[in-house]
Write a structure and sequence with these properties.
This protein is mainly alpha-helical. It has one domain. Helices cover 88% and strands 0% of the residues. It contains three helices and no strands. Helix 1 packs antiparallel against helix 2. The longest helix is centred in the first third of the chain and has 64 residues. The relative contact order is 0.11. It comes from Pontibacter ruber. It is a multi-pass membrane protein.
Length: 130
């Protein structure tokens, strides 16, 4: 074994160590982005419920306003409360899912050493701001 081989092995070990640290940081970023995507998906679902509820209420109002036939006015009278119920259900699902997402987000603990050290320091002294 020559000196060059020993230095080469040490350099390889250092590179592998740096890559592991970088990989852990990448996982942290990926996890953080996954949480953001989940929050955005919940908001999109709520907007879809809102859009459907608004369409049902507007359709009901349109049927009542523009049709003289009792059948269409009755249909319109049914669409309005159905739209309100759909809107309420969408809001309820949004808030329940938001609470669940928030509980998972607050229970999440970082795995990289730097993030773990910061989290441990924050647990010891939550009033300290870095």
């Amino acid at each position: 074994m020559n000196l060059r081989g020993i230095l080469h092995r040490k350099a390889k070990k250092e590179i592998k160590k740096e890559l592991k640290v970088q990989e852990k940081q990448n996982v942290e970023i990926r996890d953080s982005l996954a949480m953001e995507r989940t929050k955005l998906a919940n908001e999109r679902t709520f907007l879809a419920y809102s859009r459907t509820a608004m369409a049902l209420v507007l359709a009901g109002l349109s049927f009542i306003k523009f049709f003289e036939d009792v059948f269409y006015q009755g249909l319109g009278a049914m669409f309005i409360p159905i739209g309100l119920v759909v809107g309420f259900i969408g809001y309820r699902k949004y808030t329940k899912k938001g609470e669940k997402i928030e509980s998972h987000t607050s229970a999440y603990t970082p795995t990289s050493t730097a993030h773990a050290e910061i989290a441990a320091q924050e647990k010891k002294d939550p009033t300290a701001n870095p």
